[in-house]
From TrEMBL, chains A, B:
It holds the Pfam family Peripla_BP_3. This is Transcriptional regulator, LacI family. The keyword Signal does not apply. It comes from Propionispira arboris. Residues 5-58 form the HTH lacI-type domain. Keywords: DNA-binding, Transcription, Transcription regulation. InterPro entries: HTH_LacI, LacI/GalR-like_sensor, Lambda_DNA-bd_dom_sf, Peripla_BP_I. GO terms for molecular function: DNA-binding transcription factor activity; transcription cis-regulatory region binding. The keyword Transcription regulation applies.
DNA sequence: CTGTTAGCGCTTTCAC
DNA sequence: GTGAAAGCGCTAACAG
């Protein structure tokens, strides 16, 4: 199978010792003469040093474990792109494990990775449970979370609450009083609680007529679409969706019901995915820069690995993208009747 | 750093020998008594056997290298999802490397992975060059390509040509004579040549009035959008886009130009991404099942690793999704004037 | 500058 | 059944 040369073979062929070859491969500190000879032999043989033997000695794998809730998501892709941008130049590689949206599996993956001897772990978490904390306590390799936050761990995440607030202030300023928040389970703290609460807080503040109804839906376009009638039943003037995906599903439902957006109902989302712009109307949203999140997360982890401190943060810059799906309401009190 | 227990520690604590512990960890063949003792000690210590030492002996890494053109793409996500579905139950893990859309980097990644001692490699390729073939010849670890095909390698891919044909036949049957094919560079054989040629062949066959103009664009929504005016300049009755993404960009351009789709111009794409359904109008497309591609690719690789043969294939099932963006043309010869 | 010598932690004959 | 011993391929003192 593995008809590869070892460092010993190279040494023999170049008529030097193993260590000289090893030195050639690592620090240097050898004569030009032997250096040339070794270089030549290596060229000829196509020698590659054995990864596992090397790692066994080095106590460093140059591997970073990355735990993801799923693979086929735009945000995950962006995140990975950012992580990779930082890891690669430093010679680190990512070992990716998928949790299939299950917290339990996320925990299994952690111990799994730890066993493989990765130098650090990045977790795009579904929720940080007691199980996570306990497991993390039992070993000392650096871990950085994203997606969720918790005081007991390092994390880098978008400012879900702040994003909610921006949207709350905007929708309110547009003159809406009655909105449906199409959100997700509060098992997901970041999206299900922080983002929603930020919205509600900003929307309700000094706003006596304000009313927010909540409809729980899933993360998928399909489940959002399926929640369409339930949302409509509340007769809101606007529906704020916890993610762009949900917004797109709602938009589709409304379109099929021949309800004009934004004239009859306004719709907004969170995420800022490029696809938001192709819908009709284009989706107004708060955009997150997941690539930046990935970069910050990876950088934080690298700092930790290097023995430095890292600051957790949940205040990454947000950008509000006003497109076409939300419009103003001039008069008060008649919103419900307009539907 | 790594204050972990070794097999020796466990042996001492359990008052047995290293080898007994090793046996416990592997085949078995030890007395119940010692077995219990060892099990207990392992529980207490939280011992995890060293991955690298194990791999060094075993000559098997249980690692599969996966080379991807980029991370933030829906198709890549789906593919990975499928690959993972096969690999995981078999105890394999994926080591992912990204080529940033550069063929040269793809090649670097191959040798990189090979050096790490992966058991096999999956390449979602940008194009199989002589460089690839040469490198692959120099070592003997199993490799399966997807995305592109070549007689000298193993591959599993979607039927690009067949997809093109389906679309060609459809557009033609809808009564269109003059279409613009908004495609990509022919450096990408699969999408740039096979898919396009399939379309042209089916569209032109026994179709004297047929005319296909070609506009080259990039893979991104933005670049497709930017090609809008160039496409329009040909005054086609339909524009067939090499990917859904391109279709979405064109749709957006047309929308902003107040050109009605499909009444004035029909638009179609390839891919079948879920997002195609949120555009307005929803995009008619040929859908690929990338998750299935991922599964077949991974299974093929596993077969190769097990010493079995695998059949390359480029005939994975396709499904045509007729949505709203293409409509029929009744009369001949006046198409251009209608614009 | 270079070769010799120990292991890294694990698996695996090979005797007992 | 179990332990002793011999490495897997590499790096890192340690002498020279």
């Amino acid at each position: 199978m593995d008809s590869k040369y070892t460092i010993q073979d190279i040494a023999d062929m170049a008529k030097v010792s193993k260590s000289t070859v090893s030195r050639y491969l690592n620090q240097g500190y050898i004569s030009q003469e032997k250096m040339d000879k070794i270089k030549q032999v290596i060229k000829e043989t196509g020698f590659q040093s054995n990864f596992f033997a090397k790692r066994l000695k080095m106590k460093q794998s140059k591997l970073i474990g990355i735990i993801l809730p799923r693979m086929d998501s735009v945000t995950v892709g962006k995140l990975l792109e950012g992580v990779n941008r930082i890891l690669e130049p430093e010679g680190y590689q990512g070992l990716i494990l998928v949790s299939d949206l299950k917290k339990q599996k996320e925990i299994c993956n952690i111990s799994n990775l730890q066993q493989q001897g990765v130098d650090g772990i990045i977790i795009d978490s579904l929720g940080i449970t007691r199980g996570h904390l306990q497991l993390l306590k039992s070993f000392d390799i650096p871990v950085v979370f994203t997606g969720q936050q918790h005081t007991a761990v390092h994390y880098v995440k978008i400012d879900d609450e702040g994003a909610g607030r921006i949207m709350g202030a905007y929708v309110r300023q547009k003159g809406h009083h009655h909105v449906v928040f199409a959100g997700v389970t509060n098992m997901d703290r970041a999206v299900g609680i922080e983002r929603k609460q930020g919205f509600i807080d900003a929307f309700m503040e000094n706003h006596p007529k304000a009313k927010v109804d909540f409809v729980k839906t899933g993360f998928s376009f399909e489940s959002a679409y399926a929640s369409g009638s339930e949302i409509l039943a509340f007769k809101p003037t606007a529906v704020v969706c916890a993610t762009d995906n949900i917004g797109l599903g709602v938009l589709r439902y409304l379109h099929e019901q021949k309800i004009k957006v934004p004239q009859e109902i306004s719709v907004a989302g969170f995420g800022g995915y490029a696809v938001g712009v192709v819908s009709y109307p284009a989706l107004t949203t708060v955009a997150f820069d997941y690539e930046l999140v990935g970069m910050k997360t990876a950088q934080g982890l690298l700092d930790l690995i290097a023995g430095k401190k890292m600051e957790s943060q949940s205040n990454l810059p947000l950008s509000f993208i006003e497109r076409e799906s939300v419009c103003g309401r001039q008069r008060d009190g008649v919103d419900k009747d307009r539907i």
